[in-house]
Specification:
Radius of gyration: 21 Å
Strand order of the largest sheet: 13-12-15-20-17-18
Number of domains: 2
Shape: globular
CATH topology of the largest domain: Immunoglobulin-like
Order of helices and strands: EEHEEEEEEEEHEEHEEEEEEEEEE
Strand content: 35-45%
CATH class of the largest domain: Mainly Beta
Distance between the termini: 59 Å
Number of strands: 22
Helix content: 10-25%
CATH architecture of the largest domain: Sandwich
Amino acid sequence: MHEKWRYKTFGFNAFINCSGGFDHLTKFEQMHSFKLLIFIASAAFSIALQGQDSLWISRGEWTDIPDSVQSIRFNSNPQWSGINSTLSRVPGESSTLFLINTDSISHTWGLQVEGEEEWELAAFDSLLIPIPAMAQGTYRFGLLDESGRVLGASGQLQVGLEGEYPLFHWNLGDWSMERMASADAGYPVDWDSPYVPEQFTINERTFPATVDDSDAFVALSLGDTCLISIANHGFMDHVFHFHGFHVTMMTSTHHPQRIGWSKDTVPIRMGEALTVRLIAYQVGLYPVHNHNLIAVTNAGFYPGGMITQIHVTP
């Protein structure tokens, strides 16, 4: 019996027969399988030559929530992950991003900064995108087309946040399974229908999985200072409440007038990205959660959704 390796490409499952090559596949599958292999090889070669930071636009099964659904993500390599990658840049310096679209449809990429250009990327194509010099802070990037946006291709760009303090990040998302299924099937989303999301995530995970995520679970020693970069990629506003601590607003894309405020409850508007500073002045385990009751459930079951924790040790 011949051994077979199973892999997913562009919306269909194909099987490579290790001794028989691609002969057993349909002509359609052969064409796209060869196209995938050539595309990945050429894109990887280009990245190696240019030494560029790169993101792969990938479609796959998102299994990090109770409802397993098809989604689109930004991955740091060709291997599928249901968790979006995060980018980091030095403040005041322009740079570039090599973007590779492994999806079978075209997408529109954008950096969510006023005045920035939108970039069209055809199916199975790649593009070198300029990133402007930016001030210190947290920013959003993502796919702007309907399917890319609804299926969750959004991430953080952190500028000048690494180095001085421990850095954590929270990508906030709210998800309607009906909308996602419609977008995945290629149907237009009915934006006028009531929006009733069933899942709420931090870094594409729901509680209790959030506390297993070292980027979301804030682990500190007594007296430490840390930064938390937060981006709301969802379709509604969110409000986070910190037990045990006040945080200081350091940057905000939507409310610069709030910089310097110290609060234990922080609103994050739809599309907003912000940075807060937390000083671990007392020992203990403290929850951080969304103040909207439905957003701390998994499909209505409590506890779940947007909950994580701060753990301060002596």
